[in-house]
Specification:
Number of helices of chain A: 5
Number of helices of chain B: 3
Largest sheet of chain B: none
Helix content of chain A: over 70%
Shape of chain A: rod-shaped
Oligomer: heterodimer
Number of strands of chain A: 0
Structural class of chain B: mainly alpha
Order of helices and strands of chain B: HHH
Largest interface: A-B, 43 and 40 residues
Number of domains of chain A: 2
Chain lengths: 158, 121
């Protein structure tokens, strides 16, 4: 009778032990699946982060290049204005007195300058360059009102 | 009686859980990122300016200039500027041209940045 009871207790304990082990293994497997899913998510997140960083790097480079280009452009504006002033005042030049003494010549120069300035405005508004403007490399061929804009291939003499 | 009770309990269980046996289909929600439509305006049309002629008049040639105008059938009237104001006008035009160029360049840069590199939101 006692042996029978002991046998029964041992059997119950064994069944409980096996069930417990089974449940534990199942829990481990579930945990493992969750960890694997987490790992996948983290890897995807890292790949995406890397992509974002790469894109940011490209954007910064593009912004820097664009800034550089605009700064160069603003630099040429300053120079163009200085050159324009120089043309009126070079060597104490007085355009009024010159116009009195050499009326026709100055009229010709002013009309040519006006035409060049109008062409500069057309180019600034997006007009296409003519082949002559693109080919201009000599000082005599260029549009002096806006050399950098009108004649992109012209290199000023030093 | 015992069997009837069993069947009754079983029926209740089936009735209560019947709809959930096999599971309901879950609704899946997808989020597809659709890029914003490009504005894609063409660049502004370039200006085509008309040519104008400057006439210089001095106390010496004034009569001759007006005579020429009359002969050409043009009203003998001129809108004048002093030499200093002419310089100011030239400078003002240069500044307008530069602003136009700067704006056009900015527009091109924006277009290039947001439309060429696929950065548009």
């Amino acid at each position: 009778m006692i042996f029978g009871k002991i046998k029964m207790i041992i059997t119950v304990l064994m069944i409980l032990g096996i069930s417990g082990a089974g449940i534990y293994v199942m829990k481990l497997r579930a945990d493992n699946a969750i960890l694997k899913a987490n790992q996948d998510k983290l890897e995807t997140a890292i790949t995406e982060q890397n992509k974002v960083l790469e894109q940011q790097k490209k954007d910064f480079t593009a912004i820097l290049e664009s800034n550089k280009k605009l700064n160069v452009l603003i630099g040429t504006f300053k120079k163009d204005l200085e050159d324009l002033d120089k043309r009126f005042t070079k060597k104490n030049r007085d355009i009024g007195k010159l116009a009195i003494n050499r009326t026709e010549a100055i009229e010709r120069i002013i009309n040519k300058g006006g035409k060049n300035a109008a062409r500069c405005i057309e180019l600034a508004s997006g007009a296409e360059h003519t082949p002559e403007e693109l080919k201009a490399t000599l000082k005599s061929e260029i549009n002096p009102e806006c050399p950098a804009l009108a004649n992109p291939n012209y290199v000023p003499y030093q | 009686m015992y069997h009837i009770n069993k069947i009754f309990v079983l029926a209740i269980i089936v009735l209560l859980t019947g709809c959930s046996i096999g599971g309901e289909k879950k609704i899946k929600i997808f989020s597809i990122e659709k890029p914003r439509e490009k504005l894609d305006y063409p660049m502004p049309t370039a200006l085509q300016l008309e040519e104008l002629k400057w006439i210089i008049i001095t106390s010496k040639n004034a009569e001759e200039v007006f005579k020429k105008l009359e002969e050409a059938g043009i009203d003998p009237v001129l809108f004048g500027l002093t030499d200093k104001d002419y310089q100011v006008l030239a400078r003002n035009f240069a500044q307008i041209r530069q602003k136009l160029q700067e704006t056009n360049n900015l527009l091109e840069e924006y277009k290039k940045y947001y439309e060429n590199t696929g950065n548009s939101e």
